């Protein structure tokens, strides 16, 4: 399909936009474009439903670790959540609700997997290649595939020899019966923290292989009482006040992650005391407590929220293995101390290839430059969204826009609004393209690296925030509110503005 067959003038429907992905980022981007009066856009979704990470992750216990009153769009905040923290199915239903209510479904093409995209300099268009051979074109390309979409399986010796059942948490086998089985779980990240307590109730024996323990704090979750729901629905302002309270609580916590003096010290002490108290209350064994105590500052890795994790690990039929994995055999896992633990199933709670942004898509900009090669030593983008040499390409949830504490939905909305303003500039000024200047990108990257030294993200632990070289390519180094200020509107001095070939030249319409 060639979207250039239908054409409209700049200033009418606006430049055509293709958005890749229909999770929070893609749907938020679509809404921002509609708010800017731009309707010529298409969302390409490889699956048959919206939802992104919340569609893919259906493991037992899957839920959010940010309260729902903040983990929701600002334009659709008053949703009847059943609990303080949304569960996977409910969050997915929320996204479906947003897509229906704001008439986004007609803009979505399901079952369209993007293989790559190439920038055509002569035409000033992105050529988007789909699986199956179809090619689309658009003036603007927005990737909203996120950081957590490629399951990561560890490269373990002998992994292919295992004869039992094995699967990643993001590819859950709902047909597998855990009852009375001996199971190994590899990984102790946020997914494992949620699924382990659930399957531990069913298995005969569970071996948890941890590379390093995580800081765990209580999760103050509970269902909303009927009278609370009625009160919030009657007085929506109460919901807004709670949203505001949660936002500024996270901003306070961020001061600990950013090593802020005074306030940050208080925040650190508050968080650590909560973690230590929870561990003391739920783990009686001093040896196990030591085994579950991190040797790095809180926040260096994602802080875990759970009321059941530590309690589960202290149960007699659960073993925490910290010796490391030597090899996977046909019937089990041999740890570094030589001991073989025979298991019938292996669950990988090992997270995602979070530093491989946009992969496996191949994106090529000016003169065929490969974004994958450009980012081979670490992804970087101006404001996490724009890359020099790739005109009219924007990335939502790109490099250094993740949060150590806070709601990623806030960050996504700031980015979507910013990109919609950039597209509106193309329309209103009759421009062919915007391309961030190399010097602006370099200055922004240098600022990130300077400030990163003042955070806990490079404090010596191994986390999904860091690439193979130990560089933080994922997480923002400031507060949410600071990022909001930086992205309030495009700074045109930081961009090359290319005029259209001729006044009133038509722009390609959406797919």
What report would you give on this structure?
With 511 residues, the protein is α/β, with parallel strands linked by helices. The chain has a domain at 3-111 and 140-147 and 373-508: 3-Layer(bba) Sandwich (FAD/NAD(P)-binding domain), CATH 3.50.50.60. The chain has 13 helices and 23 strands. The strands form 7 sheets. Strands 4-3-2-8-20 form a 5-stranded parallel beta sheet, with helices on one face. A 5-stranded parallel beta sheet has the order 9-18-10-11-14, covered by helices on one side. The chain is globular, with a radius of gyration of 24 Å. The termini are close together.
Helical amount: 25-40%
What sort of overall outline do the alpha carbons produce when their principal axes are compared?
globular
Helix/strand/pairing category: alpha/beta
What is the class of the domain at 3-111 and 140-147 and 373-508 in the CATH system?
Alpha Beta
CATH topology of the domain at 3-111 and 140-147 and 373-508: FAD/NAD(P)-binding domain
Mean pLDDT: 91
What summary fits the major beta sheet? 5 strands, parallel
Please state the CA-atom Rg, rounded to the nearest Å: 24 Å
The low-confidence runs, each spanning 5 or more residues with pLDDT under 50, are 1-12, 503-510
**Strand coverage percent:** 15-25%
Second rung of CATH, namely the architecture of the domain at 3-111 and 140-147 and 373-508: 3-Layer(bba) Sandwich
Strand order of the largest sheet: 4-3-2-8-20
How many strands appear in the DSSP assignment? 23
Query: Helix tally?
Result: 13
- How far apart are the termini? 8 Å
CATH homologous superfamily title of the domain at 3-111 and 140-147 and 373-508? FAD/NAD(P)-binding domain
């Amino acid at each position: 399909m060639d979207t250039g067959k239908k054409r409209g003038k700049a200033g009418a429907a606006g430049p055509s936009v293709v958005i890749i992905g229909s999770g929070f980022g893609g749907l938020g981007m679509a809404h921002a474009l509609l708010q800017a009066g731009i309707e010529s856009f298409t969302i390409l979704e490889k699956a048959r439903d919206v939802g992104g990470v919340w569609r893919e992750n259906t493991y037992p216990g899957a839920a959010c670790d940010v309260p729902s009153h903040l983990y929701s769009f600002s334009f659709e905040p008053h949703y009847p959540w059943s609990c303080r923290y949304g569960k996977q199915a409910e969050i997915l239903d929320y996204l479906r609700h947003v897509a229906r209510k704001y008439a986004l479904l007609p803009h979505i093409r399901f079952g369209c997997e993007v293989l790559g995209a190439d920038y055509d300099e002569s035409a000033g268009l992105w050529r988007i290649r789909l699986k199956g051979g179809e090619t689309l074109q658009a003036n603007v390309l927005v990737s909203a595939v996120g950081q957590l979409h490629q399951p990561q399986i560890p490269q373990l010796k002998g992994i292919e020899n295992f004869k039992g059942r094995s699967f990643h948490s993001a590819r859950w086998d709902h047909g597998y019966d855990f009852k009375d089985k001996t199971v190994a779980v590899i990984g102790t990240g946020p997914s494992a923290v949620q699924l382990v307590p659930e399957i531990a109730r069913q298995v005969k024996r569970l071996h948890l292989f941890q590379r390093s323990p995580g800081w765990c704090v209580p999760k103050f979750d509970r269902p909303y009482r009927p009278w609370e729901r009625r009160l919030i629905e009657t007085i929506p302002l109460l919901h807004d006040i709670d949203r505001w309270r949660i936002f500024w609580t996270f901003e306070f916590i961020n001061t600990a992650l950013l090593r802020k003096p005074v306030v940050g010290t208080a925040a650190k002490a508050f968080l650590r005391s909560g973690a230590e108290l929870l561990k003391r209350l739920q783990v009686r064994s001093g040896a196990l407590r030591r085994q579950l105590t991190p040797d790095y500052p809180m926040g260096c890795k994602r802080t875990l929220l759970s009321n059941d994790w530590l309690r589960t690990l202290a149960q007699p039929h659960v073993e925490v293995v910290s010796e490391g994995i030597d090899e996977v055999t046909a019937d089990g896992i041999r740890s570094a101390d030589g001991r073989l633990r025979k298991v019938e199933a292996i669950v990988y709670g090992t997270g995602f290839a979070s530093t491989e942004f946009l992969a496996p898509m191949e994106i090529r900009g000016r003169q065929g430059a490969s974004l994958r090669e450009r980012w081979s030593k670490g992804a970087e983008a101006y404001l996490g969204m724009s890359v020099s040499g790739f005109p009219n390409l924007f990335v939502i949830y790109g490099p250094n826009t993740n949060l150590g504490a806070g709601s990623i939905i806030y960050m996504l909305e700031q980015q979507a609004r910013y990109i919609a303003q950039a597209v509106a500039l193309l329309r209103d000024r009759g421009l062919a393209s915007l391309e961030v200047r190399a010097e602006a990108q370099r200055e922004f990257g240098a600022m990130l690296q300077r400030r990163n030294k003042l955070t806990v993200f490079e404090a010596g632990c191994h986390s999904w925030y860091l690439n193979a070289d130990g560089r933080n390519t994922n997480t923002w180094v400031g507060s949410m509110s600071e990022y909001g200020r930086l992205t309030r509107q495009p700074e045109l001095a930081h961009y090359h503005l290319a005029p259209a070939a001729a006044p009133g030249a038509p722009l390609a319409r959406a797919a």
